[in-house]
Fold each of these.
Amino acid sequence: MLLFSLKPHCKLTFLVSLLWLSLLVDSNSGFELDESLTYIWPLPSEFTSGNQTLTVDPTLSLSVLGKGGYSKILKEGFERYKKIIFKHASGISLFQKWRGIRSVYDVSELRIIVNSDSEELQLGVDESYALFLAKNDGKPIVGAATIEANTVYGALRGLETFSQMCAFDYETKSVQIYKAPWYIKDNPRFAFRGLLLDTSRHYLPIDVIKQIIESMSYAKLNVLHWHIIDEESFPLEVPSYPKLWNGAYTKWERYTVEDASEIVSFAKMRGIHVMAEVDVPGHAESWGAGYPDLWPSSSCREPLDVSKNFTFELISGILSDIRKIFPFELFHLGGDEVHTDCWTSTPHIKQWLNDHKMTAKEAYQYFVLKAQEIAISKDWTPVNWEETFNSFPSKLNPRTVVHNWLGPGVCPKAVAKGFKCIFSNQGAWYLDHLDVPWNEVYNAEPLEGINNVSEQNLVLGGEVCMWGETADASNVQQTIWPRAAAAADKFHFFSTNTPS
Amino acid sequence: MVVSEWLFYAVAVAALVLGNALAVSSASENSKVKIWPMPASASYGNAQLYLTNDFGLSSNHESQALKDAFDRMLAAIKLDHVIDANFSAFSPSSLLRALHIVVSSPNEQLQYGTDESYKLMVPSPEKPGYAHLEAKTVYGALHGLQTFSQLCYFSITRRVLEVRMSPWTVIDQPRFPYRGLLIDTSRHYLPMTVIKKVIDSMSYAKLNVLHWHIVDTQSFPLEIPSYPKLWNGAYSPSERYSAADAAEVVSYAQERGINVLAEIDVPGHALSWGVGYPSLWPSKDCQQPLDVSNEFTFKVLDGILSDFSKIFNFKFVHLGGDEVDTTCWTTTPRIRKWLKRHRMNESQAYQYFVLRAQNIALSHGYEIVNWEETFNNFGSKLSRKTVVHNWLGSGVAQRVVESGLRCIVSNQDKWYLDHLDTPWQEFYINEPLTNISNSKQQELVIGGEVCMWGETIDGSDIEQTIWPRAAAAAERLWTPYDKLAKNPREVTGRLAHFRCLLNQRGVAAAPLAGSGRAAPFNPGSCYEQ
């Protein structure tokens, strides 16, 4: 039964309603949930379901087993998800419980088994889990709800899936799990499932970054690529070179070292790595607000002055300082969109190029490789945007991870040369391209054009990029979602289905 | 000719000088006092104070609501920053150890007209090391806490919370007792978490009424225990509020000093009622307004209002009454017959319906708010307990108060937030008392409300559609008339500051630039966009 009528306070609505009407007629799926679908996102790699309905106790308790069961990360994760699952008031009264009606609920305990007690969060950490949900039937040995994982991070993924299966039923006012018994085995397809945030074009308050990290965990994304600095502003504190954050927009639009550490530990509690980026030698004009020597000249300010030792001393200082903040093994050195005009047009740099018998292009290579060495000396694996690979592939350090963005076909070339690769083809996975709809995001495939399994293994994964030129705290979340979720499904589950 | 020309120039120059002088004086306050909305009175000095790491609350008034509000305030000023200052480096006389709150009334019941005034002194003139806040009610104290939170900054270089420009004395109270924001959960369902975030953000701008337009043509999301099939009209099984959810919204709002005005809009805008009870429709093909000829209609309305009275304890209930197109009454044979038998034309039937609904609401102890069409059509027949809610245009408030009824101003050309192209400046300059000079009549304008109709907004974009434009109206409704900027340009910097504060507190408030609601055009500082 379709209900439709003209409504007033807004003139647009008639048209909107007509559109909506036609959609409904087309798909007939506006109101009734399609029971044949599995409402878990991203879709787990293996699952079976049945046709029972389980009720979940609002005082759901946690019981843990295994060496990793007593982790704080697990305990806090359980409490977070409990809040999400039980946000509505329950209809079954405590009175019923007091009267001794035991087990009014099918699920009153969630058992989580974590085999390892290591909380180290590194690339490739085991995120697999198995989730089992069934009526207890009085058999005490098998818990009605069990998550088993090798690490706490796998257990967190299992909790996320569990939370998505719990639905508040408004008729009985209880939380229910439909289509039980469930048996789910899940393991992500890629180890690197990233989202880029850009805090240089617009400063993002810490609270907003935390909201985004929280939402990433819902889609099982696991890398926050923090593009901290760019030409517009330098918001991060660097204790060794305290004038750098003079390049912040204002004194309020800054992150202290402690703020950055807080973000990293907030992310870790949710199984999310933070990959920091310091983009050199282009995209670095804001550095010179505090140290004008870094500019080729006061009228020609980018890229960083390749001819000065001070430039590399300072990079080394930044990396030493922030190494203490970012424990993740990958570190992004940028290297994209380097226009060397200021090098060739500034006399002292031109002289230096002559003295060293370098072209501007060779100087770009020299800069990138030197920066790579610094990063490697701090025990980091360098990630660079694809221009570095496109310009001097054989010179890059073999540990380099090539970050694709310009177009398709780059990861196949990079992995053929033995490099690791991250896929971010801008035509599909740049979230600042506001006109790319979610189904095009979904259709992009990180392994496209790579058939050899050992080469496929070199593709670490992919990343959707939320560049900040026209996105700030006011609109960043709806620019990220739901399109980032489309990519998240791709990262997670190998599907040949095309979206409808 | 020459003389008159000279006179013209002299007057023009004098006006220019005078105008500039005024602009300069208020501009200087606007650039120094970064409080939104601007308090009735604020004086300040030039000393710096620092909050100690264990900055706490002391009060003569044992109140959980106050304690919770204090904790929220502290979290809002810390903004997740890590405080690790070296306190031994500060002179002891520059440290603030606690905020002392004196509340004179033990009554914590929030109601229309609850005293919201407060006085804030930082530091306390009597107790060194303390800030001092006094208020008649706990709700005045909540506003004082908001103001205090806006005096505090996290110093990124010293890693400490600091109060600049002390000593501060702020004496403050609102200009209007009713400062509302409408949300519409029928056109799009808004999840509980979103409603709570909106309530939080309202408290930052000292708005005090959440007008909850719960039900409309499109969906009926609320549980009505007396008529349980009504929420069959919800969009989907999960886009619903249980009665317990609604009670939770009310108590969440009250803890923040905000009343909830529930609206059940009759007899138009009620099509969704009939999904569960089709006999409320005139007929299957003509589904609005509610069937005036059917006693069951009024039974259901009585049940709804009876259930409401257990949840919504605000003095007022909103009965709508707008945009009633009576065509279905005259084209449905059964109703046409009924009209004839009762010697009513359809506009009389509309009046009959509204007045009967008013009587039902009165019987449940409510005073009534109705949209202005009811006043425009039969103002003299309305209950004297009616508050007329303006929306169609300007000049209505004037006529309403002349007739002795009370009024809420929401003229759509200025205060409808779903008009995306109305810029914040228009929200700022909209004056509820335009052309009302008699002070008795002025008092009948109880306030105003900005309306966030939900046709094209949902949980994804409601915050940036509300903010910062609602804040512009919030200052109009809070700040004494003489302290309001005559030209909104004077407050741009201070409003941008408040917008950035909202962002820092996790509220997705939009940039000021652009005409109406807009995304940022290009990179830049929050404070300049």
Amino acid sequence: MAPLMNLVRLRGFPILQQLHLEERMLRTSSSNWCIINDGTTSPTVVMGLSGKVPELVEAKSVLRDHIPVIRRFTGGGTVIVDQGTIFVTLICNKDDVSDVQPFPRPIMSWSGQLYDQVFKGLADFHLRENDYVFGDRKFGGNAQSITKHRWVHHTSFLWDYEVKNMSYLKLPAKAPKYRLTRDHTDFVCSMKEYLPRSEFVERTIKAIGAQFSVKSINLESTEIPSSSQFVHTTRLLTEQELLDACTIQT
Amino acid sequence: MACRQFWASRAASYLRVSLFNRTFSAVIKDLKYCDSHEWVKVDGKSATIGITDHAQDHLGDVVYVELPEVGKGVTQGESFGAVESVKATSDINSPVSGKVVEVNEELNSSPGLVNSSPYKDGWIIKVEVSDSGELNNLMDSEQYSKFCEEEDSKH
């Protein structure tokens, strides 16, 4: 019998709250969870756990334009997310995906196979290094967190994006080889060229349904402890931290 | 290939290191191991902890180590820190219970030591052990080698 996957569908949910929810689900729940958040609220920069603001973010611009900067609990790089971003998160017990070793590369490969099914017949989809690409253009960025018995794999999908928002991000020192020397606009692409938003979500749920028994749950019914009872790793950076980064950058 | 394996076995024997054929991950004979792939070297009440060669090989290049504060309590089987590699943060779990007395500050500037020297320069924390009896819950090097082979063969 296929293991149960609880599906929580959100729309316009703030990304900080989503990441906090994911951390609590990873650490306090023993169920499998899929969160699909169709667009977040206003533009937000989200860095990985070890991200350093002076290296990754145009600090002066984010301060000037009041763009929040978050450091999340998973690894990986820096993204700017907004209403055009679709988030898909999978939180699994390792024993419910027992043919996947609970290490970064096997989990990444498993996710690539899942999304192969989502985009089958629609686009030239690949998992390339650790990104989801159409051809050689990135449309989805991935990150993970792995605990003793569970792991989370989450993706921010560029259904659409604003070119001007990319200017809040610096060109990272460490980039995938396939990027070559391309700047943001030549490196990324948007999913809207390929399929409607709703079709992407439905195809994703169907692909997950091939491996799990999917049950839709309202956020209010999740029985996950409230924020106040949990110390999160994910946090919003303070104005002082951004000012300190400005000083380093000038 | 046979010649390489012969010399690898000779070197392993000299260094008191075990190799298992499939992956050539090293296992040190005098250490204890847990099933989440951490090792512990116990010397009286003092323990040094790190992650195994099998773990570092499967994690990929470590780019960051989140270290605990000195003085923090650790519990056998529970997380005390994390490593970041590829796009993942992975918990590091303590093989013993006790109190952190030292952390390897070198890992702040050289996280890759966890990959290049997992049993020596890549040590992560030192702990004052509170319950030596808990060591009976851990695997010795032979049991750990077998555990790793079984895990890898399932996938």
